[in-house]
Design brief:
Strand order of the largest sheet: 11-6-4-12-13
Number of helices: 14
Number of strands: 13
Order of helices and strands: EEEEHHHHHEEHHEHEEHEHEHHEHEH
Distance between the termini: 8 Å
Length: 336
């Protein structure tokens, strides 16, 4: 058994660490935010968690911890706040799991969550990642101010049919509306201007979709509206060091493994306007014979998707004290 644990780019001696043979850590993205996230972890594990929030407050200068612990839904929906908030809350949960001796064999993150995954994999320093997600959120919010839009989940239609509807609406109305997330066989997220989302929603329901739901996000991510910020964000990415992954990490853009720091940087740039290939990501992980999925951070969206796509594999949340303790108890039973 490896007697080291991986913490923010370094291995630290920990002889009692529990090593799990094939557990995947999944990190959530924007939309998973909730008031109070990280508060119970800070109260139960102050020495482990508080440094993340205190450093984030200092680096960003926006009182991020107060927004996480006490902010209402409207305050947390502002993209430039949401992204660092979810990122830090997820890192805090991962730190508690590390403290309990749990580490993954492979990691992946949904959209924003890919940054957390890269930190966990040793590719990115967590403070550098914090600055990047703050900048990313600011740039995305600026796109939305210029061209208001949103995202919506279409549930109950196969992805090719949703894509066809988006193409039809784009051509008919002359607006941007595209498939942004391929989440599962029966769930796709569409992204674009408000008028386009309205029409896609109407046609999808008419075609038999069981439900169409607007997401709790502040901009139309992962569509061509984000092309305008790719160059500016690319400069931010170039200013940060990226290392070779020490833990396997799966990228959104390719649904394949990241092989180098340079590749990780380029994939994050492309990720702004490219669809999130989450269904394929889960298929890859399941094909690698992972023993289970652990959603590390607020919410349970990725847990629900994992259970729907691969019901034979255990999937659990690990974003609160209670959920982490339950997960650790379950994970211990598959330790080797």
């Amino acid at each position: 058994m490896d007697d080291r644990r991986f913490v923010a780019g370094e291995y630290i001696s920990r002889p009692t660490e529990v090593v799990l043979s094939r557990i995947a850590f999944l990190f959530p993205g924007q939309g998973s935010q909730m008031s109070g996230m990280g508060l119970d972890l800070t109260e139960r594990y102050p020495d482990v968690v508080r440094p993340y929030f205190e450093t984030a407050d200092e680096v960003l200068g926006i009182g991020l911890s107060s927004l996480c612990f006490e902010g209402d839904a409207e305050a947390l929906r502002e993209t430039s706040v949401t992204q660092p908030a979810v990122y830090v809350a997820s890192l805090a949960a991962a730190a508690v799991l590390r403290e309990k001796g749990i580490r993954p064999a492979v990691v992946a993150g949904h959209s924003l969550g890919e940054y957390t995954a890269l930190v966990c994999a040793g590719v990115l320093d967590w403070v550098d990642g914090l600055k990047l997600v703050r900048k990313r959120g600011q740039l995305m919010a600026e796109v939305n101010r210029r061209t208001p839009g949103r995202m919506a989940a279409v549930i109950g239609l196969p992805a090719p049919q949703v894509n066809d509807i988006c193409v039809e609406v784009s051509r008919a109305l002359g607006v941007v509306v595209e498939v942004a997330n391929h989440n599962s066989a029966r769930q796709s997220v569409v992204s674009g201007v408000d008028r386009g989302i309205d029409e896609v929603s109407r046609l999808a329901l008419q075609a038999g979709a069981g439900h169409v739901a607007d997401l709790k996000v502040g901009a139309p991510f992962h569509c061509s509206l984000m092309d305008d910020i790719a160059a500016e964000f690319g400069l931010s990415l170039e200013s940060v060091a990226f290392a070779t992954p020490a833990v396997p990490v799966v990228a959104n853009v390719t649904a394949g493994y990241v092989h180098s720091g340079a590749e990780a940087r380029e994939l994050l740039r492309r990720q702004l306007a490219a669809p999130v290939r989450w269904q394929e990501t889960l298929q890859l992980l399941a094909g690698e014979e992972v023993e289970g999925f652990v959603e590390v951070g607020p919410g349970r969206t990725l847990t629900n998707l994992s259970r729907a796509e691969h019901p034979n594999l255990p999937a659990m949340t690990a974003g609160t004290v209670r959920n982490i303790e339950q997960a650790v108890e379950k994970l211990g039973s598959v330790a080797v």
